[in-house]
Design goal:
6-stranded antiparallel sheet
Length: about 300
């Protein structure tokens, strides 16, 4: 049996249908004694709390949304009352909720479904005019959205995160670098660089590391500054400039880094194409906005965690 949050302010809430489910209902409809609500999970970045949007709808509008006439974005952003309830639920020994009514046009863009995303009426059971739910199987699950709304929300957040590299800091990585003449292994650990090329062994710097400093600018500590300049160093710098535009030469084997999310810091690791993130969403879904942001930044150099489209 699936449970939905019970909110003191709304009284007893009865589940009507679930449209997206992963470990728990993420997009669903419910009702109390006087209203119908469409509910969507919009933020699960914090392990100890969830943020939801509760949108009251009339029965006629509910039928239009349910049949796909009105898309989900319009349902929340252009509501009949021009307002929506933002509900933050904190979990602990006891559930605590914070409910506030906000203007529909003040909903953060990253919380809204994509334009054109709607429910598919081909998989819904007709409701009668008195909104009797007796004809519906109890807690019926309806996966009638073309792409999981929770995943869509994470993709949108990942796009924003990828534009904020200051959130990300590598602590270590190992990487295969396809040089022009042979393959090299580059290592980074606690701000210290290593490369197995002969030039690095003699000079403690090389074109491979200089190129990676440029590619990963902002994510890593730069190598020690050069104390001298000669023709060999100049040649390495010139080669590094060429490497910088050829990221297809790079393949990450493993890495560890910290990611400053909106609510807390997360630890992310990658080893032999296997991803891990300490956030709760990754634990239940095997993917999250933090991992997808890194996939966008390092596209072509890492294996994707799941077959999810990378939106430009």
């Amino acid at each position: 049996m699936y449970s939905i949050p019970q909110l003191h302010q709304f009284g007893n809430l009865e589940l009507i249908e679930v449209y997206e489910f992963y470990d728990k209902p993420l997009l669903y409809s419910c009702k109390n004694a006087s209203s119908i609500f469409l509910v969507i999970l919009v933020d699960e970045d914090d392990d100890d709390s969830d943020t939801w949007l509760y949108q009251p709808v009339s029965y006629n509008r509910f039928k239009q949304v349910r049949s796909g006439v009105i898309d989900l974005r319009e349902t929340f952003s252009s509501s009949e009352t021009n307002t929506v309830f933002e509900v933050r639920i904190l979990y602990g020994d006891e559930q605590y909720e914070h409910v506030k009514q906000i203007p529909a046009n003040a909903i953060p863009e990253k919380w809204l479904p994509l334009p054109g995303e709607h429910l598919d009426n081909q998989e819904t059971v007709p409701l009668n005019d008195t909104l009797s739910t007796s004809s519906l199987p109890k807690h019926e699950v309806r996966t009638s959205i073309s792409l999981d709304a929770g995943i869509i929300s994470k993709i949108e957040k990942a796009i924003l995160y990828a534009r904020e590299p200051e959130r990300i800091r590598f602590s270590s990585f190992t990487l295969t670098f396809e040089g022009y003449h042979k393959q090299h292994q580059v290592m980074y650990n606690d701000s210290k660089w290593q490369c197995n090329c002969s030039y690095f062994q003699n000079h403690s710097v090389c074109s491979h590391i200089i190129a990676l400093e440029r590619v990963l600018k902002g994510f890593v500590q730069l190598a020690d500054k050069l104390s001298y300049m000669d023709l060999g160093i100049i040649s390495e710098i010139e080669r590094a400039m060429l490497y910088t535009n050829e990221t297809d030469l790079l393949t990450f084997n493993s890495f560890n880094f910290t990611f400053d999310g909106d609510h807390k810091q997360h630890d992310i690791s990658y080893n032999k194409s296997k991803w891990q993130c300490s956030c709760s969403y990754f634990y239940t879904h095997g993917v999250c906005s933090h991992v997808m942001a890194i996939e966008r930044i390092l596209v072509g150099t890492v294996s994707p965690t799941r077959d999810i489209p990378v939106v430009a």
